Amino acid sequence: FSKKTHEPLLDEASRQIIRDYYDGKIPFYVPPKEEFLLNPKELISDSDEGL
After folding, report:
1. pLDDT in 10s for each residue of the chain, 51 residues
2. So where are the chain's domains?
3. In the chain, is it the N or the C terminus that has fewer CB atoms within a 10 Å radius of its CB?
4. Where are the beta strands (DSSP E) in the chain?
5. 10, 18 Cβ separation under 8 angstroms
């Protein structure tokens, strides 16, 4: 954080995100297929209904 403005330093924050990604602290994300986004009920299987 900047001592004057108390805002995060973007350069350091971006470096930390890249370091965390390479260290495996940030998992790889694959967005769902469009059909699941359009029909979210398809994400629920029969075994999930009992919960």
Report:
1. 667 887 778 888 889 888 998 888 887 766 666 665 666 565 555 554 554
2. 10-48
3. C
4. none
5. no
